[in-house]
């Protein structure tokens, strides 16, 4: 099975290592996450209006951009918290069942989950950026007939997810237990 | 180099069927984000990480197979999921350095 070797059109650039910091609000126990590129992530509690937010958990991650080498355009994905593989979802969930069906056609489904805005709402990720992510990952596949389909979180999946289901590096050996709580922001 | 040839030469224990794939290189990492950012399609992924998210990352970048070093054993559901996505999983008692040197010795670069 010979593979055509050609330069990919899309490249991952400006890969910035850092930490996904998950913090909890003292009174409501709401959780939210943000990216920190600081070498020593901040852990001090702070006040935001009547709320007090404090460090809860962190995971290593990266922030990146994708460059279109034909146009030179660079698109940043700072709003992207991570991807959720359908296989990491509850087998009874819509995502798992759709993903399981799609996999029969060699389509692997992932969902792009974004960070929360300061007001607790989810940041939006534009459909054009979702399309770009799909083009980026699909053009480097080698397995015959295989496809990746990254979807936006159209179903509010984030309300049901744990941070541990998102592709983040909570630990080198196991993240079980470290991030098993709900990732709700409101 | 074919996956089966590598499995035979390193005496790896297969947990899944060995799929007919060409291996084009090796990437060693225990970090999901690192695999997504730096591993390439057709690479062998050598790791001690057995969490499902490693399989998710391996599938996303289309690695040829996963070698779990130091005798690490994934859960049954992860093995089933890997087989469904035609990503072979092998285990070996060798550590990552030993796996790397053996892969180099058999000609993988």
Description:
The complex is a heterodimer of chains A (186) and B (109). Chain A has two helices and eight strands. By secondary structure, chain A is mainly β. Chain A starts with 9 loop residues before the first strand and ends in a 34-residue tail after the last strand. The C terminus of chain A is likely disordered. In chain B, strands 1-5-4-3-2 form a five-stranded mixed sheet, with helices on both faces. Chain B is α/β, with parallel strands linked by helices and 109 residues long. Chain B has five helices and five strands; from the N terminus they run αββαβαβαβα. Chains A and B meet through strand 1 and strand 4 of A and helix 2 and helix 3 of B.
Short description:
The complex is a heterodimer of chains A (186) and B (109). Chain A is mainly beta. Chain A contains two helices and eight strands.
Structural class of chain B: alpha/beta
Low-confidence runs of chain A: 172-186
Cα separation of the termini of chain A: 51 Å
Helix content of chain A: 10-25%
- Contiguous runs where pLDDT drops below 50 for at least 5 residues of chain B: none
- The protein's oligomeric status is heterodimer
Blueprint of the fold:
The complex is a heterodimer of chains A (186) and B (109).
Chain A: E1 10-25, E2 31-36, E3 46-48, E4 51-68, E5 74-76, E6 80-85, H1 94-103, E7 107-114, H2 127-138, E8 147-152
Parallel strand pairs in A: 7-8
Antiparallel strand pairs in A: 1-2, 1-4, 3-4, 4-5, 6-7
Chain B: H1 3-10, E1 13-14, E2 25-28, H2 32-38, E3 43-47, H3 52-61, E4 65-68, H4 76-84, E5 88-91, H5 96-105
Parallel strand pairs in B: 2-3, 3-4, 4-5
Antiparallel strand pairs in B: 1-5
Helix pairs in contact in B: 2-3
